[in-house]
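Exercise: predict the fold of this chain.
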Amino acid sequence: MKLLLSGRALTAAAVAVATLVTGGSTAGAATAPARPAAAAAPDISITAVKAHLARLQSIATANGGNRAHGRPGYRASLDYVKAKLDAAGFTTRVQQFTASGRTGYNLIADWPGSDANQVVMAGSHLDSVTSGPGINDNGSGSSAVLETALAVARSGYQPTKHLRFAWWGAEELGLVGSRSYVNSLGSAERAKISGYLNFDMIGSPNPGYFVYDDDPTIEKTFKDYFTGLGISTEIETEGDGRSDHAPFKNAGVPVGGLFSGADYRKTSAQAAEWGGTAGRPFDPCYHSSCDTTANIDDTALDRNSDAIAYAVWELSQ
């Protein structure tokens, strides 16, 4: 996350049966095919998500301790994610832009098929700050989105709406990559995006469970998931407008997302509800060198990763 600068509604299809009776016997029956039941989202493996985090950590360690915009650690991170997606059958492209005199990159991955006039996007920023490896901020969101995309491929999922996944560059410099992408789209292309889901910090070590309240349908989807787990959520306010959903929202695209907290301090009421330590930041290592693989709460990462998959499946059917 950049520094502060400013239930499932499944409708069963009706089955029509026409019976023609001649002389008291059944002459024939025609049955309309039933609409298939909605696909259920898979469980996202926390082991797989953490394997991606470990790889991002090793990339940072080998490249000056960070994965920041314009640095070799960022490009190595992007190459790692892209290789996984290419092998899984996604159509990928790298979009270039310039920020602070350095070349930046976004990675866009489309799952082939479905209605290209209705697009559900899920994204996260892949860059870290220069002061650390950025494992919670935002390796956590990036790895969970990656594993959700790979789950789409493994399941051969073909929803009604087209699925697109994105990893943004230079978020830490002011949402540069995501803004570049949104600005590159014509109004007709922006209108095809029925929802953009953003995931920026979802494994904070003293976690909260925050849901964006920007779009009612997307918000309800996430709340329904956590209600099913018996977990209360709060409206996300700490990062409002500070992450990559903002350019989409400003362009009129419905947005939503999840957040587990940054440098705001957990209240006593929140600690009573969610556990953890009152009076301590949700992430004491926010934008610091200690934002390593040790700076992750596995339970929060697991729950939020599953919530991502749930929302992607729900909103794309």
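Check your answer against the key: The chain has a mean pLDDT of 91.
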